[in-house]
Amino acid sequence: MGRLRTMTAHRTSVRIALGSPLQLLLLALSFALAGYAGVRLLADDWFGVALWFVGAAVLHDLVLLPVYAAVDRVVTGGLGAVGRREWTGYVRVPAALSGLLLLVWFPLISGRVAERYESATALSADGFLARWLLVTAVLFGCSALLLVLRLRRATKQRPPVAH
Amino acid sequence: MARSPSLPSSPSSPGFWRSPLRGPWFTSLLGVVLLAGITVLFVTGLLSYASYNPDLSPVNDKTPDKGILGFYLFSWPTGPHWLYRLNQGVHVTLGITLVPVLLAKLWSVVPRLFQLPPARSLAHALERISLLLLVGGALFEFVTGVLNIQLDYLFPGSFYPLHFYGAWVFFAAFLAHAVLKTPAALRNLRQLREARSGDAPPEPEPSLVAPDPAEPTVSRRGAVWLVGGGSLLLFGTSVGQNFDGPLRRTALLAPHGGAEPGSGPNGFQINKTAASRGIAAAETSEEAWRLVVTGPSRTVRLSRAELLRMPLHSAALPIACVEGWSTSDQWWRGVRLRDLAELVGHPGDAPPDVLVESLQRRGAFRRAALRANQVRDPRSLLALDVNGEPLTPDHGYPARIIVPAAPGVLNTKWVARMTFGEL
Predict the structure, then answer these.
(1) Which of B56, B86, B188, B266 could pair covalently with B392 via S-S, beta carbons 3.0-4.6 A apart?
(2) Domain check: are B88 and B202 in the same one?
(3) Which domain holds residue B187?
(4) Residues B4-50 pLDDT 10s
(5) Which residues of B are less than 8 Å from A103 in CB distance?
(6) How many Cβ atoms are within 10 Å of A102's Cβ, its own excluded?
(7) ipTM of the complex
(8) Most B CBs within 10 Å, among A54, A101, A102, A123, to test the B interface
């Protein structure tokens, strides 16, 4: 009887250590397909591609995300220190949208592909930085305008303070 | 190794993550959007791959060792004539639009990256390895795509095999993740909608909800608006590069947005200029240039003047690039491909495949093959004029191919030689 209980306990712990068999099967199939394509992906420059694959995840998770989270915390903290924590959104939204455009279109905005771009397409590579700055200015301008309007409305609605 | 999971200074302790936005609802919503969006990206990507007819000829095939990954390949049709324009416009514009959703999704689950113990079971350990393929794969696909459309060829190798094989690695992990998580994500959304911000449903894994949340600076609804606003901004400043005229100017930062490269009948968008491909005026002049057409019965050499004396036909067709920009329909005029096939001995009702070679000496698609169904279509032309004027050098003077629904690179410019027959 004691021996049977030990066996059952042993089986349960093995089951827990393995996890769901269906999940294992699914993951095995997934790895088989990823392996089949991965061998071909790595065929030419395995080190370069592996570096890009893992590097993209590491750069995002350990550099990009901590950096923008820290910047956000600095903005929130700074506004909080001057008692204007509720203004965070008016900085965060235009900054996030502008940063997003810069992230996606960095090669064109920075001009690092200007020569190849102009030679291939017969289009001017000059406008991208100016247009991005313009969009950024419009985003921050609209945000500031919205803040001013809300503040004025709040001032009008607030009853006069009696001393 | 000693661990101190209670120290909030360590990212592996739940108290380290303080945003009140993180939780099953936010992650589930973003997950469901990505489930739909990435499925569309994958399907349009596979269709774009098929549109090159890689199984037709080695010159079209940049992934000769694809094996079973080409299982679904089929003869790319010639109608509707805007098929590739739509497919690739959706693929690239949707990809750009999903960037904020992907970033927000990764932000919402980042505490899981540091979760301890690293694995509770073998299945959980494998799932976490699979998540590396999922996150690495998603970023790899988005980054290679976004760089390629801006002609920034930083990535280690040719875009075609990297983006194609990378997509399959990513999709393998995506599929497993979708099967494992979608039921829970849908359940979360349904329960939270019913509960109307009531108690959160129980989570099987360590919760994403911060145990010690900071004072909120934005509501959940506000955060969703920010992500959606980012998507809308990217969409609004990119989609215009698929249309001519004032709409193109709305694509403020997209590579083929803004102004047209020129004015007049030949003023529409150019993929690669003559100068950038090393096409000299001396080799395209009336005296120097001859088109060599070869078939089973004979080989003919034709000057541009002789081609202009053949029966000429018109077709209104767009230029649609793999990079996700396109033009509206242009009015092309030239000799039908099936008439050229007939000239060298192929019966007019059963034209064969054709290998088209350009004057250009470098470039991945200086030679391209077209399938019999493409040669047969009466709108498939060796174009000599566009919008009522002779082609300019940048649009392929003396003669270029234009085929309905074909990707831009198969519409070979500066054609020098055409070989009709089995490839």
Answers:
(1) B266
(2) yes
(3) 14-209+217-236
(4) 444 567 888 888 999 999 999 999 999 999 999 999 999 999 999 99
(5) 99
(6) 15
(7) 0.93
(8) A123
